[in-house]
Amino acid sequence: QVQLVESGGGLVQPGGSLRLSCAASGATFYAVGWFRQAPGKEREGVGCISSDKITKYVDSVKGRFTLSRDNAKNTIDLQMNSLNPEDTAVYYCASGYYTDSQRCAVVEADYNYWGQGTQVTVSS
Q1: How many alpha carbons lie under 13 Å from residue 25 in its C-beta half-sphere?
Q2: CB atoms within 10 A of CB 45
Q3: Helix/strand/coil for 112
Q4: What confidence score (pLDDT) does residue 5 get?
Q5: What residues does 44 pair with on adjacent strands?
Q6: Phi, psi dihedral angles at 105 (to 5 degrees)
Q7: How far is the C-alpha of 124 from the C-alpha of 118, rounded, in Å?
Q8: What is the dihedral of CA 28, 31, 34, 40, to 10 degrees?
Q9: Which of 7, 89, 117, 123 is most buried by a 10 A CB count?
Q10: pLDDT digits (tens, 9 = 90+) for 29-49
């Protein structure tokens, strides 16, 4: 059974940085995606990292967000830089299995297991 727990959210000023972490027990061979949901909006994708550490990002976060994972520790980190108020949301990590260990997609339907979310607020 895969279990996911996010941490690291909080309040940050515009232009600042935060590092979110996802503790993913039982997910060593799974891809992990990050998604976010802003108040009053649909949940949207942020990026994903395959079990072989291949990463993908949506355009709005490219160059600002970086995914990494430590398979020995079963942790997946999302480093977020140059944050702006539009990044305010609840951030979720999710895991899903791909037969190709280099593949992942930022598509909610591909992910079976979800964490509870962590709040990120970007405000001065």
Answers
A1: 3
A2: 20
A3: coil
A4: 96
A5: 36
A6: -140, 145
A7: 19
A8: -120
A9: 89
A10: 899 999 999 999 999 999 999
